[in-house]
Write a structure and sequence with these properties.
The protein is α/β, with parallel strands linked by helices and 484 residues long. It has 16 helices and 17 strands. About 3% of the residues have low confidence. The protein binds pyridoxal-5'-phosphate.
Length: 484
């Protein structure tokens, strides 16, 4: 094995790849015992941590099994069932959807402090106010509440949403709206209706993981757009548009998932200029708009759009009632009936009961007060997470200070173990997070997703956050071979 010590690729990665290649070519057949980490480190003239990290990565990817005391053996990849994390077979299985299911399950395990799911804090959901709203509509409307609803949505809720949007600078008639079962359905509806095999869609990199899953296998090419800490760089678009002739650009300009980036006003205007000049359709996902913590974000693209190039999606999952599954979209007039027809083939309507109860809740004027309480609790939780990370994370780790949304986006030291390797140790120690690679299109790991992780800072009270981050730091140390 020869190592390129002058190159930029970390040594552990070179070791890992050399061993993986030998296993794949049959040079190291199943059940071959690998040299102990100490011995190989001495032979190669590297630190033992480097070899431990390489072995951990190989174990995480199902190449070898590592038993303390017995050593590391090459696995028969045709027959081995790769063990951890529970419920998943191999990293190839870590698509966003099944990892998401796993994360939801994990979040309910009492022994795990999970920072993984993209959900708002359960302890702050408005149980009493919503119970009142549900009771009121059941009493007022009787069995109609339990009937099918209209495809477009419950008309009084359409009116209430139009009023809320007007307060956010978005002028729409209720008839331009379409209510869906959650924002994810609105996104899937647009993507599946407007895109065809052979089309290209532009996305942020990293992006909302489930959108990648919606597009997977659809024959639609996914083209990342260069982004910085302020989101998509509009100047990069004209070249990409000329090269790929994309059908649309999907983005979350406000408190993006996973990075938390919030696009400044001037950049929003530049982006809309490019869209108008090149006739580019923009799919704007605004689910985190209400969750600002320091200052209200700039107006949405849709509010600034003067040329009708923006399809706008939003919903009530992140800021109010994730389980009620109420999302919506606003589309340019010529697309509305196409999308409404497609919606009918997905599910006739979003839940009539929840649409009516939500409308009652909004009519009673409770939403604004709820948001104030949420922001105040989330500020404390953000503070707890930032302080805990500063106290516990290894040198070389870096993370964002989100101005809103739900997430801290953390980068582990690039010369240490990957996020998926740390994940396995983290589960053992009772903490979970969302590995960053899920937010990158397949095949783009070299851009950095392998060492990123997403931490939802809103889910737990400050003391639990502090304990969880300590466990995470310990998991990193274990994965790096620094403690047993
Ligand atoms: C950017 C983004 N859009 C949409 C959604 C889905 O929201 P909903 O629960 O309303 O389907 C999420 C949830 O994580 C998200 O992060």
């Amino acid at each position: 094995m020869t190592l390129d010590r002058a190159g930029r690729r970390p040594l552990y990665e070179q070791i890992k790849e050399a061993i993986a290649a030998a296993i794949e070519s049959g040079g190291l057949p199943p059940l071959t015992k690998l040299p102990p980490t100490r011995t190989l480190a001495r032979q190669l003239g590297v630190d033992r941590v480097t070899v431990v990290t390489a072995y951990n990565e190989l174990a995480a990817e199902g190449y070898i099994s590592a038993h303390v005391g017995r050593g590391s053996f090459v696995l028969d990849r045709a027959t081995s069932s790769w063990a951890a994390p529970p419920g998943l077979r191999a990293p190839a299985d870590w698509t966003a959807h099944n990892l998401n299911r796993e994360m939801m399950r994990m979040a309910r395990r009492p022994d795990i402090i999970s920072f993984a799911p993209g959900m708002p804090a359960t302890d702050l959901l408005p149980v009493d106010a919503y119970r009142l709203a549900l009771n009121r509509v059941l009493r007022r409307d009787g069995p109609e509440v339990l009937q099918y609803g209209l495809v477009e949505g419950y008309p009084p809720l359409l009116t209430a949403i139009a009023a809320e949007l007007a307060a956010m600078g978005i002028e729409v008639e209720p008839g331009q709206l379409l209510i869906t079962s959650g924002t994810e359905q609105a996104l899937a509806l647009v993507l599946r209706t407007l895109l065809h095999p052979g089309d290209t869609v532009l996305i942020e990199q990293p992006t909302y993981a489930l959108v990648l899953d919606v597009l997977a296998g659809s024959g639609v090419a996914v083209q990342p757009v260069p982004c910085d800490e302020n989101g998509v760089i509009p100047g990069a678009l004209p070249d990409l548009i000329a090269r790929c002739q994309p059908r649309l650009l999907y983005l979350t300009p406000t408190f993006q998932n996973p990075t938390g980036a919030c696009m400044p006003l001037a950049r929003r205007q530049q982006l809309l200029d490019v869209a108008a000049r090149h006739d580019l359709l923009v799919l704007e996902d605004d689910v985190y708009a209400h969750l600002w913590l320091d200052a209200a974000p700039p107006p949405s693209l849709r509010a600034l759009d003067r040329t009708d190039h923006v399809i706008y999606t939003n919903g009530y999952s992140k800021c109010l009632l994730p389980g009620a599954r109420i999302g919506y979209l606003v589309a340019p007039a010529h697309l509305h009936s196409l999308l409404a027809t497609a919606h009918q083939t997905l599910d006739v309507s979003a839940s009539e009961l929840h649409q009516r109860a939500l409308e009652m809740y909004l009519r009673e004027g409770r939403f604004a007060g709820h948001l104030v309480r949420l922001r105040s609790a989330y500020r404390q939780r953000r503070q707890a997470m930032l302080e805990s990370l500063a106290a516990a994370m290894p040198a070389g780790a870096a993370w964002t200070r989100p101005g809103g949304g739900l997430y801290c986006w953390l980068q582990l030291p690039l010369d240490g173990p990957s996020a998926t390797t740390v994940y396995l140790h983290a589960l053992d120690l009772g903490v979970a997070f969302a590995p960053g690679h899920l937010s990158f299109p397949p095949g783009t790991l070299e851009t950095g997703g392998s060492h990123h992780l997403r931490l939802n800072f809103t889910l737990h009270p400050p003391a639990t956050i502090a304990t969880g981050i300590l466990r995470l730091a310990r998991a990193w140390q274990q994965a790096a071979g620094l403690r047993g």
